[in-house]
Amino acid sequence: MSTPHEPELPAEPAADPIASDPNFMLSLARGLAVLQAFSDQRRSLTIAQISHRTAIPRASVRRCLHTLIALGYASADGNQFSLKPKVLSLGYSYLSSTPLTVSAHPYLNQISRSLNESCSLGVLQDDEVLYVGRSAASRIMSVSLTTGSRLPAYCTALGRMLLAHLPAPDLDDYLARVPLKAMTERTVVNPERLRAILADVRSAGYVLVEEELEVGLRSISVPVRGASGNVLAALNIGAHAARVSRRKMEEEFLPVLRASAQELSILLP
């Protein structure tokens, strides 16, 4: 005679190593998440919108905003909250003391002036490209890019150059962790295809991305290496696809980028 199977108990969720760290300050983490909820597209947000973006309870968001306002980092207009210029001081120490950022600005300005196009320097941080330097000749995107801006890595020239030089296990983790969303109809969203593209980028020493982040945008990027030979950052030039051809980017822009990246590498540790 068969006996009924005992119901299976649900598996216990894995413990969050951060949450279990007695030295981890949840209140500080929440405050930083509230700051990061603001963006160029959403400079003014409500408590509900911030809560939705950060998955932080509204009561906690309210306390974070109250503290930021008291310290001069945010302001309120009715139920709308926005950041104040004092926030810039949080990143100034890094930008004014990091050799990469300090050394790059003259080169970015020189590239932008010589080619009359926008030039940027980026690093990979938290699965995104973080812009640590930029010299803009004109606005070529619907989103205004400045130092401190962030963009997806998988569909940008800067990002692909940086991803191409990740150790294999780190790239595997990235592709397993990050959803590849279509930004335009040309965006590569297949992980294996992207992996093949990144292998070609590593071999070629440069990457050209055409209208994958935004329609009408063409961009080319090269690596910036330190004294050890490791890729520390990437340089790029972005331009209107209708105005600057792929051939022009490869024949005229690429040599300038490579020369500047080489000169910049000499100054880095």
Automatic annotation (TrEMBL):
Residues 86-269 form the IclR-ED domain. Gene3D superfamilies: 3.30.450.40, Winged helix-like DNA-binding domain superfamily/Winged helix DNA-binding domain (1.10.10.10). SMART domains: HTH_ICLR. Pfam families: HTH_IclR, IclR_C. GO terms for molecular function: DNA binding; DNA-binding transcription factor activity. It comes from the Bacteria. The keyword Repeat does not apply. Keywords: DNA-binding, Transcription, Transcription regulation. One of its GO terms (biological process) is negative regulation of DNA-templated transcription. SUPFAM superfamilies: GAF domain-like, Winged helix' DNA-binding domain. Residues 25-85 form the HTH iclR-type domain. NCBIfam families: pcaR_pcaU (TIGR02431). This is IclR family pca regulon transcriptional regulator. It comes from Massilia aurea.
